[in-house]
Amino acid sequence: MADIAIRGLSKHYGGMAAVEDLHLAIPEGALLSLLGPSGCGKTTTLRMVAGFIEPTRGSIDIGGTEVVRVPPHRRDLGLVFQSYALFPHMTAAENIGFGLRMRRVPKPEIGERVTRTLNMVRLGGLGDRYPRQLSGGQQQRVALARALVIEPRALLLDEPLSNLDANLREEVRVEIREVQKSLGVTTLFVTHDQSEALSVSDYVGVMRAGRLEQLGTATDIYQKPRTGFVATFLGGANVIKLDALAAVVPAAVVEALRGQGNAIGVRPETLAIRSGLDVEFDARIEASDFLGAYWELLLGTPIGPLKIRTNQPQPVGSSVRAGWMNNDAVSLEA
Ligand SMILES: Nc1ncnc2c1ncn2[C@@H]1O[C@H](COP(=O)(O)OP(=O)(O)OP(=O)(O)O)[C@@H](O)[C@H]1O
């Protein structure tokens, strides 16, 4: 196992920066997710670490060795992609053993390692099946086993759960995390799904337009987003400009909220419909969406539309008092 250190990494296509001046470190044995919207540069970053894309600038160290000039097959990395990319004419066991055969590992050892890895991803007994005889989740477990059986220095996962339906996605993500932890394999995980990133990661890096917007532990990133972008992307917070708020509530209230930034974030689940709040105003229920565990309401307010989650249904068109307690607001750079 090895740590990964990325310094000043950039990739330019013509005048366009797909990735710009990226710095991050993944300690040995940790899992770091790169999270962000489509086109923010996550995959380009992962492919530079894998060696499929040559950086325009910057360095990538794996286990203390600079690898930018090292070809992909010599970087000793396990890779799992969104498409399982299994060989259709090989059984699960043959797919998993392929990398070992290429490395000329003796046959009996291949058999032993393949069986052990099949059991680890809970596919014991299915080694003789062909990919077409396996479900999507099982195929992705074969892909994971194939990446792990070579005992890579690090594991790179690019949207590995995107092709699975919602239930399976949760199941496989728990398994990936368990296997990753039990082996202690350093992992870079790329996803656009915030709940996936929060649930599997030791660290989350939120990317925006080629740059790393914020890096921290999953709880840090969620509870202390630094910018409006991060607050909105993780958990869909309402971003409220303090200037807009100053027009509706007393100046002292606004001053109490002024931290490092010129805006605040309030999460839909902490926005409240009642009076007796630190900050409150008149609002109108513009829309109501029943989502099973809660209603999501759209409030029309003097500071603009706000989203709120509540277990109390409210008739559309009704007038209410709404707002928040200051403890529930985080200071943001808008
Ligand atoms: N070969 C290329 N030539 C030109 N531009 C590219 C190339 N590859 C990627 N880009 C651009 O670089 C940016 C980052 O792409 P990248 O695939 O890394 O994003 P991403 O965050 O992984 O998105 P997604 O989640 O949609 O895969 C995008 O604007 C993309 O259009």
Automatic annotation (TrEMBL):
Residues 4-234 form the ABC transporter domain. The lineage of its organism: Bacteria, Pseudomonadati, Pseudomonadota, Alphaproteobacteria, Hyphomicrobiales. One of its GO terms (molecular function) is transmembrane transporter activity. InterPro entries: AAA+_ATPase, ABC_SmlMolc_Importer, ABC_transporter-like_ATP-bd, ABC_transporter-like_CS, Mo/tungstate-bd_C_term_dom, P-loop_NTPase, Transp-assoc_OB_typ2. Transmembrane segments: none annotated. This is Putative spermidine/putrescine transport system ATP-binding protein. GO terms for cellular component: ATP-binding cassette (ABC) transporter complex. Keywords: ATP-binding, Nucleotide-binding, Transport. It comes from Chelatococcus asaccharovorans.
